[in-house]
Structure to design on (660 residues):
């Protein structure tokens, strides 16, 4: 026992010694989701995939936050009801629980508040909360599941968004190669990737893209050194606070899984990571990365791709004769 | 050994005795998919879920043949590129391998031939085969997987559709309550459901809806006894054969999982199973089912819901800087 204890202490010391890298770094490894209410998350998963929350019966949360594709739609701006062209790039739902707030302009304080937005947005799912709830209430299997999860015989928007948010909390992407490196595996990333990380820090990218999500924890002006030229009408945080100083301030996006979440920026105008790094260098840092530096930073960014959520495609309970019918064309 | 042999014989006899129900019935239990090339099917699953096969980057096979919803979109007629209103109801992909041919008018001889259609249909996915292939070829992980599966360094439409078809072959829904009954479990269905089945046979529904798929194995005129009134312009098999006698002949749909595949008929005009049974009775059989009979037949039909395909949501390999970009809005 005593010897085992000593050995444990010895290895713990070693582990902390190597794990110490993490403690000294401005980026931390992602931890698995904890305190998940699994029954609630399972219900939320169904809702996330259920297009009956939209007017058309065709668009679900997963349409624009596609979990097969990094939690995004990989489009410049999204497609909504009647092929409406959205005003902004869909941010990834992966690791979104770590964001300081939701939406690019932070107008929702958390995942639950966010989840209600698109359902009733005429340019997105175009339903109403009343209609969406009446659809769910018409389906006995949903009624039973809400009752089981929330001990209620009445489905409310609060239940719906709470369940979706609980599912979204599970969507953390652990064990990226960079996190393996942070946790002590020196061979997890290459020399070029490591040099890219060094550049990422020394050039100042890290001042906004830091923490476990490598971003997501502050609002920053798009165009600090040089103005950012765009046709997008989005004004960012100013639309929420009403303050002129918040104009063009957007939530700094997470760079986790950035390899999968192209195209980039709130307007989706940067098609490639290389282009995004180049533009960020110039307008935020006043720095022109040369070709090698750009490639090294891009290589580093690709080490941030974590394990993607792995789950069984949910089977949705069927509508009944009483379920309000989808109306895609009127 | 000898005793074991006798016991085996005895139990085999018992099994055949009860299984004999199945042998005498015009509907057979669904068998699990066999001879599946699993590597090919895994690749096909990714392709089935990949919206990059569409011009917009937004529509995948799963958009209209949603495997969370009985392999359909549960819409009267489907939504295609730029919200195009499709001319016909999306048939289920579940058990589609058992169909005599594919599409309502049978214009594709098998699943592989079908799979190429929607990709290049301007009102559906609106891509071209050339573009879709060039998207796939630009993605190293796809190139590697095609190479592994088909031992080829060049991706062709034939490979793409073969893989999708192989995945679709796995989508059989075994072990419905009705199949359990067919296989000897007398308690698997209720008295009302059994009476519904008896009515289904005695009224003549069974003459078209028979076999393991309870349909799918013949073309029949919509409106045998009375003409079917519809605004749909679909003319059915005549569009393929050019023969006037084939006008309004459609492939008889499978009734497997019919509880999940609402709305019904090629034009999607029957919103409920009860309505569909009523209309079929009148126009195909010259029979008016009373309320009780209708309910019993509907109850029987709901016993045909089998185990839905269960698999992990596929994670798609990311595009690269060279991948042709989706163009949803131009």
């Amino acid at each position: 026992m005593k010897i085992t204890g000593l050995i444990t202490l010895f290895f713990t010391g070693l582990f902390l010694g190597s794990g110490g890298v993490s403690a000294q770094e401005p980026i931390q490894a992602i931890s698995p989701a904890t305190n998940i209410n699994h029954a609630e998350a399972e219900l939320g998963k169904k809702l996330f995939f259920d297009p009956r929350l939209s007017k058309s019966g065709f668009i679900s949360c997963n349409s624009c936050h596609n979990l097969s594709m990094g939690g995004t739609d990989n489009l410049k701006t999204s497609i909504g009801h009647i092929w409406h062209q959205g005003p902004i790039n869909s941010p990834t739902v992966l690791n979104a629980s770590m964001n300081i707030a939701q939406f690019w302009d932070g107008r929702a304080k958390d995942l639950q508040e966010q989840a209600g937005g698109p359902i009733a947005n005429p340019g997105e799912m175009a339903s109403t909360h009343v209609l969406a709830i009446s659809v769910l209430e018409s389906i006995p299997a949903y009624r039973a599941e809400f009752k089981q999860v929330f001990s209620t015989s009445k489905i409310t928007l609060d239940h719906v968004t709470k369940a979706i948010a609980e599912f979204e909390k599970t969507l953390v992407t652990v064990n990226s190669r960079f996190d393996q490196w942070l946790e002590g595996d020196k061979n997890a990333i290459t020399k070029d990737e490591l040099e890219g990380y060094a550049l990422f820090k020394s050039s100042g990218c890290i001042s906004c893209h830091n923490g476990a999500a490598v971003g997501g924890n502050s609002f920053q002006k798009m165009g600090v050194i040089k103005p950012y030229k765009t046709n997008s009408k989005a004004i960012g945080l100013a639309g929420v606070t009403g303050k002129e100083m918040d104009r063009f301030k957007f939530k700094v996006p997470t760079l986790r899984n950035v390899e999968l979440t192209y195209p980039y920026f709130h307007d989706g105008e940067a098609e490639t990571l290389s282009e995004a790094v180049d533009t960020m260098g110039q307008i935020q840092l006043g720095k022109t990365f040369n070709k090698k530096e750009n490639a090294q930073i891009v290589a580093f960014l690709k080490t941030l791709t974590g394990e993607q959520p792995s789950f069984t495609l949910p089977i949705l309970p069927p509508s009944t004769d009483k379920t309000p019918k989808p109306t895609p064309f009127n």
